[in-house]
TrEMBL record, chain A:
Residues 198-273 form the Cytochrome-c3 hydrogenase C-terminal domain. It comes from Pseudothauera rhizosphaerae. Pfam families: NiFe_hyd_SSU_C, Oxidored_q6. This is hydrogenase (acceptor). GO terms for cellular component: [Ni-Fe] hydrogenase complex; cell envelope; ferredoxin hydrogenase complex; membrane. [4Fe-4S] cluster 2 binds at residues 201, 204, 224, 231. It catalyses: H2 + A = AH2.
Automatic annotation (TrEMBL), chain B:
GO terms for molecular function: ferredoxin hydrogenase activity; nickel cation binding. Keywords: Iron, Magnesium, Metal-binding, Nickel, Oxidoreductase. Fe cation binds at residues 64, 480. This is HupV protein. Its cofactor is Fe cation; Ni(2+). Gene3D superfamilies: Cytochrome-c3 Hydrogenase, chain B (1.10.645.10).
């Protein structure tokens, strides 16, 4: 399968993240799956006119593009002209190239939340008129329109995340190459269910603090980040705490909130990112699928039952009280 | 008779780039550098809660993400009047150094060296070795270097949650305290990377390479073993054959904001080196101006405290989205070469004394930083004190201002933040490549790359490898440039 990768209104961070893939041989894994890189801006030899030759052949349908990977948002401004990103050397807006290429592509993938929804570039006044391939924030549409289907009959596959996890990209590419990816492999927002059926909360190392609502109040505190620090791990779809980032990390393990970067609209939460919005002292954003009354009741109960160890550690940056040693056998 | 050649898209640079060349008599008469992507982060930031900058600015750039975080944290720190505990400085230095060294490493193996494996160089004595080692995607170096990079960046998994786009760097230090056993793991990761570098990249101890103090010493070191015994020796053989020391001279004015501070003293000094002085001098950030005369932006020349970013795609005479920063009216160059010049490394000084800034000097100083910073990182890990605080805390002022000047892999990065009524009233950013790839200013003086390209041999747009070497020797980051 031919893979073509282009970058537009993003930061290149999803490529940088991909290069951290937990593989001893990233390029070999792609080759082994029958994936041939036609061109990638950070990796390929060809430059300048050689690139335009490759892109023109793809856009005309002469060179088949099986996997069209777009990283970064699509910039429609100013005034719909797309001039906020003219592809270097081509004299044409990148959005024109993407429209042409997507018309022929067998599968079109949005790599990261910018290409999926518009992402960070759409924050504030959205100065560049950014959008995603098939979403404009939470609204279907985007550059290609809600009705777009790639040649294989699928909508844009949204490998969302800011950045996206290298595993999410590699596993989606390999599943496509192996013929093991179809409409049922995507959730309602066209994200691969391989990672989007999980919540960031699952496997969070701070779960004991969550259970007792023993909360962090300041950066570097060990406690749960939900009550005060803006964490949305109980609502955000991703498996960040079930598979590690960079060997063993995740946002919550790094001491800071999940900002739900896989979700459309995450860039404008309506409150400071690192501060939980509350009404009458109760966080507005409660865990997915949980009735509010039960959450409030359980939180009140668990707070009053918090062990001293959990309470004191929650407000420290290292363990100040270690677990009691108990005999665990039935004696 | 002159003609105009447009080169682009440039690959193996971060982001998109277009270079227009006026060619006369087989040489570049004038170069015009266009940063063709505008996103508008400075507009996005206005009106936000100041703390939101820590989420937004890393996403300017996926390869300089931590340095953007560090600059924002420093600007907020100044506004909040915080002092960072020693652990916080050590942790922040380690995360920034991990990114900077990974960037140097990525530049050498993935971005820069593959150009010497192109068929245009077939027949050169070193070509077969270069092709086997550095061919894009297929060479043995990429296959070996990527896992080493991945393992090294596991430092960020421990210290920062993930890379890129961490939120662990805080105005008061780090949100991620390190335990005693994690110190051991960090130590192990650093030593593993050191072994890889010493075995493959240098073929010698880091300290031995760091101690090379002249071009002659470097040549003698290179000649002591076969060119194929290490990647640096192979590069030096290529550089000698292609005379990369005589390629790509820009202004020879070098700026560094000072890198990796600890208790008020940076590991690499802060200052300005100019040929007239022949020594590092102080500079005043108040002397920085951004000239908009050739950018698709409205407004007049201003200091970033008062800077504006208002796009105007139809502006006459403009050819890029990049502003033109100047220091006391001068074009300056930043990056690893500038840092080592300002810090007084004898090898950098000797190379510049002989030929000025060059492709060789820029690439070599990046590798030199690998040899100088990794041992410092090993010491920083040992200095971490579990149980002592990693982060100081304080309140944001409703009115205030802060400036954050840090050294990213590619050079000096500045953030200028003003806060009014508890919100961001102004946020201006000057990135390293904004300095290096700036367009002409109102006086018509070209930017650093534009100067470095002038005079290069050029007869065929499809055989522009010399231009490619010069462009990539700056390790440009185009997404940071305009932001």
């Amino acid at each position: 399968m031919n893979l073509l990768w282009l970058q537009s209104g993003g930061c290149g961070g999803c490529t940088m993240s991909l290069l951290c893939a937990d593989s001893s041989d990233l390029f070999g894994s792609l080759t082994d799956a029958g994936i041939r890189i036609l061109w990638h801006p950070s990796l390929s030899e060809e430059s300048g006119a050689e690139v335009l030759d490759i892109l023109s052949a793809c856009a005309a349908g002469h060179t088949p593009v099986d996997l069209l990977c777009i990283e970064g948002s699509l910039l429609r401004g100013p005034d719909g002209s797309g001039r906020f990103h003219m592809l270097g050397g081509s004299g044409r807006p990148m959005i024109a190239w993407v429209r042409e290429l997507a018309a022929h592509a067998r599968y079109t993938l949005a790599i990261g939340s910018c290409a999926a929804w518009g992402g960070i570039t759409t924050a504030g006044p959205n100065p560049a008129g950014a959008c995603g391939l098939q979403y404009d924030g939470e609204e279907p549409g985007g550059l290609l329109g809600a009705d777009y289907r790639s040649a294989a009959g699928l909508p844009v596959i949204n490998v969302a995340g800011c950045p996206t996890h290298p595993g999410w990209v590699m596993e989606t590419l390999l599943a496509l190459a192996l013929g093991q990816f179809d409409a049922g492999s995507m959730d309602a927002l066209a994200r691969p269910r391989s990672y989007a059926d999980q919540l960031v909360h699952h496997g969070c190392a701070r779960n004991e603090y969550y259970e007792f609502k023993a909360s962090a109040e300041r950066p570097s505190d060990l406690g749960c980040l939900m009550e005060n620090m803006g964490c949305k791990g109980t609502q955000a779809h991703a498996d960040c705490n079930l598979r590690p980032w960079n060997g063993g990390g995740s946002c919550t393990r790094g001491g800071y909130a999940c900002i739900s970067c896989t979700e459309p609209g995450f860039e404008e939460p309506g409150h400071p990112f690192v501060q939980t919005p509350k009404v009458a002292g109760i966080p507005i954003g409660l865990p997915s699928d949980m009735p509010k009354a039960w959450f409030v009741a359980l939180a009140a109960l668990s707070k009053s039952a918090t062990p001293k160890r959990v309470r004191e550690n929650a407000a420290a940056d290292h363990l100040v009280v270690t677990p009691a040693i108990r005999r665990t056998g039935l004696k | 008779m002159s003609r105009r050649i447009v080169l682009g898209p440039f690959n193996r640079v971060e982001g998109d780039l277009e270079v227009s060349l006026e060619v006369a008599g087989g040489r570049v008469a004038a170069a015009y550098v266009n940063s063709p992507l505008f996103r508008g982060f400075e507009q996005i930031l206005r009106g936000k809660d100041p703390r939101d900058a820590l989420v937004l600015v890393p996403r300017i750039c996926g390869i300089c993400s931590v340095s953007q975080s560090a600059a924002a944290a420093a600007a907020l720190r100044e506004a909040m009047g915080l002092a960072v505990p020693e652990n916080g400085e050590l942790a922040a230095n380690l995360v920034l150094a991990a990114e900077n060294l990974a960037d140097h490493f990525t530049h050498f193996y993935l971005f820069f060296m593959p150009d010497f494996a192109r068929d245009e160089y077939a027949g050169r004595p070193w070509f077969d070795a270069a092709r086997a080692r550095f061919k894009a995607v297929r060479g043995t170096a990429a296959a070996e270097a990527l896992p080493a990079r991945t393992a090294f960046l596991q430092l960020t998994g421990i210290l920062a949650g993930k890379w890129p786009h961490t939120l662990s760097l805080q105005p008061g230090g780090s949100s991620r305290a390190v335990s005693a056993v994690e110190k051991i793991r960090l130590h192990g990761l650093l030593r593993e990377f050191r072994r890889w570098l010493e075995r493959h990249l240098f073929g010698d101890a880091l300290e031995a390479v760091a101690a090379l103090d002249s071009a002659d010493a470097l040549a003698a070191w290179a000649a002591a073993r076969a060119p194929t015994s290490s990647d640096l020796r192979l590069f030096l053989e290529i550089a000698a054959d292609l005379e990369l020391a005589r390629l790509g001279r820009a202004t020879d004015r070098f700026l560094s904001y000072g890198a990796y501070p600890l208790a008020g003293t940076p590991l690499f000094a802060r200052g300005l080196w100019q040929p007239e002085d022949g020594a590092t001098a102080l500079f005043d950030p108040a002397d920085i101006r951004e000239d908009l005369s050739h950018a698709w932006l409205q407004g007049d020349t201003r200091h970033p405290w008062r800077g504006l970013t208002e796009p105007d795609a139809d502006k006459a005479g403009a050819y890029t989205w990049c502003k033109a920063p100047r220091l006391a009216g001068q074009v300056v160059e930043c990056g690893a070469l500038a840092r080592q010049m300002v810090d007084g490394h004898p090898l950098a000084h000797d190379l510049v004394a002989r030929d000025g800034g060059s492709v060789l000097a820029r690439v070599l100083c990046r590798l030199l930083e690998l040899t100088r910073v990794l041992p410092a990182m090993e010491a920083w890990v040992q200095a971490l004190t579990p149980g002592e605080p990693f982060c100081a805390h304080g309140a944001l002022p409703d009115e205030g201002a802060g400036c954050g000047l840090v050294e990213a892999a590619r050079g000096g990065l500045g953030h200028w933040l003003t806060i009014r009524h508890g919100r961001i009233a102004g946020y201006q950013i000057i990135a390293p490549t904004t300095w290096n790839f700036s367009p002409r200013d109102a006086a018509g003086t070209p930017g650093a790359l534009e100067q470095a390209l002038a005079g290069l041999p050029m007869d065929d747009a499809r055989k522009s490898l010399v231009v490619q070497h010069v462009v990539r020797s700056f390790d440009p980051c185009m997404v940071c440039t305009v932001h």
